[in-house]
C-alpha cells in the first residue's frame, strides 16, 4: 500500500522507455511518445494507472520547474536585443489569434468569455517541441527560426497574465476590484523579485559557493524556485508566476548558467510526467464519438495559426516565405495550453466533453509538428511562386530604409549574421565595394543608419538580386543558416551572372556536393573547417613544423576525412612541447634605466654571449615583436621574453638591472 506511487511511476517510466524509443525511430519528438504513454497507461485505455491524482501532483512540479528554467533562460539583455521580434511579432500573433478564435467561437454560439478562453488555448505554441526540432535540424539560427523564437518568448511571457485572467473570464471575483488587487499583488511580487535579483540572490549564492558543495548549490536553487512559487501561491497568485519570477531573478546573477545546468535533469524528469499525465486524461473514446469534429478542429487550428502568424511576420516587413515557414512551425498547441485548459475546467469555462475534444485536437497538432516543419519550405516556395513579388517581398513600413545604390565590381553578402558582419567590416576597412542583403527589417534599418550598404529582401528572388546589381558583381558570399535557401540563392545567382564567383557557407559536409552541382565555386562547411582548425592547433602544440602542418591540411582538404585515419601514423615522430623544452624555462624581464642592455642592439649579442639565453619576444608599449630582427635596439621599459636554463636566466637577469 505504501509503495503504490513508486509502482505507478515505475510502470509509467518503463512504458515510456519503449514508447519514446519507438517514436524516436519514427523521427517524432519524445513528447509525443510521453503523450501516447499516458493514453495507453491511463484509466480510459489499458488502465495500468487507475488513480491519476498523485501523478498529476508530480506533473505540477514539472510545470513549475519548466517555468523556472524558462525564467532562467530569459535574459533581460537578450530580450532587449530582439525586442522587436518579441514585442511586435509575438504581440500581434497572440492578440490576433485570440481575437480570430474568439470570433469563430462566437459564430458557433459560444459566449464571449468562453470564446476568448478558446483563443487563450490556441494562441500558445509548444516551446519544448519546436525548439528541440529546430535545434536538431540546424534551423534555430535561420531567419524563420529566429522569428519563431521571438514569438515563442512572447508566448512564454504571456502565460502568467493569461492564468490571472481565467478567473475573471469565469466571472469570479469583484470585477475591476479583483483586477486591481491581482495587479497590485503581481507588481509587489515583481518588485520583490527585482530587488532580490540585485541584492539577496547574489548574496545567497555567494555564501553557498564558498562552501564548494554542489549538493548545497542544487538545494539552494530548488529552495529559491519552489519557495518563491509557494509564496506567490500564498499571496493568491499562481505557482507558475512565482517559479517564473524566481527564474528571472537567478538569470541576472553570474551563477545562472550553472543553476540552469543543475536544474535541467530535474525538469526533464518531472516534465515527462506532465506530458504523461496529460495523455492519461484523454479518453480515446472521444476519438470514436467525434472523429470529424476533431479533424475539422485540428484543420481550423492549423489554418488560423498559420494565417495569423504569417500576417504578423509580414506586418513587420519580413518576406512572406520566411513568415509562412515560421507560421507552420508554430501551428501546434503548446504545453502550457494544457495548464490553461485544466484551470478553465476547474472554473467552468470548459465542460468535461469540450475538455476531451480539446485534448484530442491538441495532441494531434503536436504530432503533426514534424510534418509541418518538414514540408514548410516547399509549401512556402509554392505559395510565394504563385504570387507577385510585390506581395511577397515583405516590404512593410518597418523595412523602408533602402536607398537606390550604384555598384560595380562589388561583393554581395547574403545574410548579416556573425560571418556576414565580420566580412562586411573587413571589406569596408579595405575599401572593397560591397552590399548586404538581409531579411530582418530591424537589422536593415539599424545598420542602414550606420552607413552600411544593406538591402532588405529575400535573396532567392531575382528582383532583390537585380536590385543589388548582381550582373555587375564580382563575387557573392552566402552566409545564412538555411541550407535550402542557400541552394536557391546560389542557383539563381549563377543563372543571373554566369561569371560570378560564388562562395557559400554551410553547416555540414553533406550539404557540399549539392551546392557544387548548382555551380558554386567554393563551399565552406563549418563542420569540416572546424576539424581542420583543431588539427592545425593540435599539431602546433606538438611542435610539428609549419610546412608539415600546411601539407597535412592540404591533404585533408583534398582527400576529405580519410586523411585523419592515417594522421597518427604519418606523425608518430611528433612529441609534446614539454619534450623539446625539457630542462629549459621561460622568463620575462624589463630593461631598466642605465642597465647594460639599454641602447644595445641584439646584433651585438650581449644577452647570448654573456648568459647563453635566447630572445623569443620583445614587447614595447602595445607592440609585440616575436622573433625580433638582429637590428632591434633595446630601450628602457622594453619587456623581453627569454628562453634558457635556470642558470642562464639567472645570469641574464643581471644584465637587465641598473649598473
Plain-language structure description:
This protein is of the alpha/beta class. The chain has four domains: 73-260 and 286-382, Up-down Bundle (Na+/H+ antiporter like fold); 397-520, NAD(P)-binding Rossmann-like Domain (Rossmann fold, 3-Layer(aba) Sandwich), CATH 3.40.50.720; 535-575, no CATH class; 583-656, 2-Layer Sandwich (Alpha-Beta Plaits). Helix content is 65%, strand content 7%. It has 30 helices and ten strands. It has a six-stranded parallel β-sheet with strand order 3-2-1-4-5-6, sandwiched between helices. A four-stranded antiparallel β-sheet has the order 7-10-8-9. Strand 4 (475-478), helix 23 (483-496) and strand 5 (501-506) form a beta-alpha-beta unit. It is globular and about 100 Å long. It starts with a helix and ends with a helix. Mean pLDDT is 80; it is low at 396-404 and 561-579.
Task: Calculate the terminal CA-CA distance, rounded to whole Å.
Answer: 90 Å
Structural class: alpha/beta
Mean pLDDT: 80
Number of helices: 30
The poorly predicted ranges are 396-404, 561-579
CATH architecture of the largest domain: Up-down Bundle
Any idea what the radius of gyration is? Answer: 31 Å
- Main beta sheet: 6 strands, parallel
Percent helix range = 55-70%
Spatial order of the strands in the main sheet?
A: 3-2-1-4-5-6
Whole-number count of domains: 4
Please count the beta strands (DSSP E, at least 2 residues each). 10
Q: Could you say which overall geometry the principal axes of the C-alpha atoms support?
A: globular
CATH class of the largest domain: Mainly Alpha
CATH names the topology of the largest domain as Na+/H+ antiporter like fold
Q: What percentage of amino acids are in beta strands?
A: 5-15%
Amino acid at each position: 500500500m505504501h509503495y503504490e506511487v513508486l509502482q505507478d511511476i515505475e510502470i509509467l517510466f518503463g512504458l515510456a522507455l519503449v514508447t519514446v524509443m519507438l517514436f524516436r525511430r519514427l523521427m517524432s519528438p519524445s513528447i509525443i511518445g510521453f503523450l501516447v504513454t499516458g493514453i495507453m497507461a491511463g484509466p480510459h485505455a489499458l488502465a495500468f494507472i487507475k488513480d491519476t491524482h498523485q501523478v498529476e501532483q508530480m506533473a505540477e512540479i514539472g510545470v513549475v520547474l519548466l517555468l523556472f528554467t524558462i525564467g532562467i533562460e530569459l535574459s533581460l539583455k537578450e530580450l532587449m536585443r530582439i525586442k522587436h521580434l518579441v514585442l511586435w511579432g509575438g504581440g500581434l500573433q497572440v492578440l490576433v489569434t485570440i481575437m480570430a478564435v474568439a470570433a469563430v467561437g462566437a459564430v458557433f454560439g459560444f459566449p464571449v468569455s468562453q470564446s476568448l478562453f478558446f483563443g487563450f488555448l490556441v494562441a500558445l505554441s509548444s516551446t519544448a517541441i519546436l525548439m528541440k526540432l529546430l535545434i536538431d535540424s540546424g534551423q534555430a539560427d535561420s531567419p524563420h527560426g529566429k522569428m519563431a523564437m521571438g514569438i515563442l518568448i512572447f508566448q512564454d511571457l504571456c502565460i502568467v497574465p493569461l492564468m490571472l485572467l481565467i478567473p475573471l473570464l469565469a466571472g469570479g471575483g469583484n470585477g475591476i476590484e479583483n483586477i486591481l488587487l491581482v495587479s497590485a499583488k503581481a507588481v509587489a511580487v515583481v518588485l520583490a523579485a527585482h530587488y532580490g535579483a540585485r541584492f539577496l540572490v547574489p548574496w545567497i549564492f555567494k555564501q553557498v559557493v564558498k562552501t564548494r558543495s554542489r549538493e548545497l548549490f542544487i538545494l539552494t536553487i530548488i529552495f529559491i524556485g519552489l519557495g518563491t512559487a509557494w509564496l506567490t501561491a500564498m499571496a493568491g497568485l499562481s505557482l507558475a508566476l512565482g517559479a517564473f519570477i524566481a527564474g528571472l531573478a537567478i538569470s541576472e546573477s553570474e551563477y545562472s548558467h550553472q543553476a540552469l545546468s543543475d536544474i535541467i535533469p530535474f525538469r526533464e524528469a518531472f516534465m515527462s510526467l506532465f506530458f504523461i499525465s496529460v495523455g492519461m486524461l484523454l479518453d480515446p473514446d472521444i476519438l470514436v464519438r467525434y472523429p470529424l469534429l476533431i479533424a475539422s478542429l485540428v484543420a481550423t487550428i492549423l489554418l488560423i495559426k498559420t494565417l495569423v502568424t504569417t500576417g504578423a511576420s509580414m506586418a513587420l516587413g519580413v518576406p512572406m516565405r520566411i513568415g509562412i515557414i515560421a507560421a507552420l512551425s508554430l501551428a501546434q498547441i503548446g504545453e502550457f495550453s494544457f495548464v490553461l485548459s485544466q484551470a478553465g475546467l476547474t472554473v467552468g469555462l470548459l465542460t468535461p466533453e469540450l475538455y476531451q475534444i480539446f485534448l484530442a485536437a491538441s495532441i494531434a497538432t503536436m504530432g503533426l509538428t514534424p510534418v509541418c516543419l518538414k514540408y514548410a519550405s516547399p509549401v512556402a516556395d509554392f505559395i510565394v511562386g504563385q504570387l507577385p513579388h510585390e506581395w511577397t517581398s515583405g516590404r512593410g513600413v518597418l523595412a523602408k530604409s533602402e536607398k537606390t545604390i550604384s555598384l560595380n565590381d562589388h561583393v554581395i553578402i547574403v545574410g548579416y549574421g556573425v560571418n556576414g558582419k565580420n566580412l562586411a567590416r573587413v571589406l569596408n576597412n579595405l575599401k572593397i565595394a560591397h552590399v548586404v542583403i538581409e531579411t530582418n527589417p530591424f537589422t536593415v534599418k539599424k545598420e542602414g543608419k550606420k552607413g552600411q550598404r544593406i538591402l532588405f529582401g529575400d535573396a532567392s528572388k531575382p528582383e532583390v538580386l537585380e536590385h543589388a546589381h548582381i550582373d555587375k558583381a564580382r563575387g557573392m558570399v552566402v552566409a545564412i543558416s538555411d541550407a535550402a535557401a542557400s541552394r536557391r540563392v546560389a542557383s539563381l545567382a549563377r543563372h543571373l551572372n554566369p561569371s560570378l564567383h560564388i562562395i557559400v557557407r554551410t553547416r555540414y559536409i553533406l550539404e557540399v556536393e549539392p551546392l557544387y552541382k548548382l555551380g558554386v565555386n567554393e563551399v565552406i562547411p563549418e563542420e569540416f573547417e572546424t576539424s581542420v582548425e583543431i588539427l592545425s592547433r593540435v599539431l602546433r602544440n606538438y611542435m610539428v613544423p609549419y610546412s608539415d602542418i600546411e601539407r597535412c591540411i592540404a591533404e585533408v582538404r583534398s582527400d576529405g576525412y580519410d586523411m585523419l585515419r592515417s594522421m597518427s601514423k604519418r606523425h608518430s615522430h611528433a612529441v609534446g612541447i614539454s619534450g623539446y623544452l625539457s630542462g629549459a624555462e621561460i622568463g620575462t624581464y624589463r630593461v631598466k634605466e642605465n642597465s647594460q642592455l639599454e641602447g644595445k642592439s641584439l646584433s651585438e649579442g650581449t644577452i647570448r654571449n654573456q648568459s647563453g639565453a635566447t630572445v623569443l619576444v620583445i614587447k614595447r608599449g602595445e607592440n609585440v615583436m616575436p622573433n625580433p630582427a638582429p637590428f632591434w635596439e633595446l630601450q628602457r621599459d622594453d619587456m623581453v621574453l627569454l628562453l634558457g636554463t635556470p642558470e642562464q636566466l639567472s645570469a641574464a637577469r643581471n644584465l637587465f638591472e641598473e649598473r
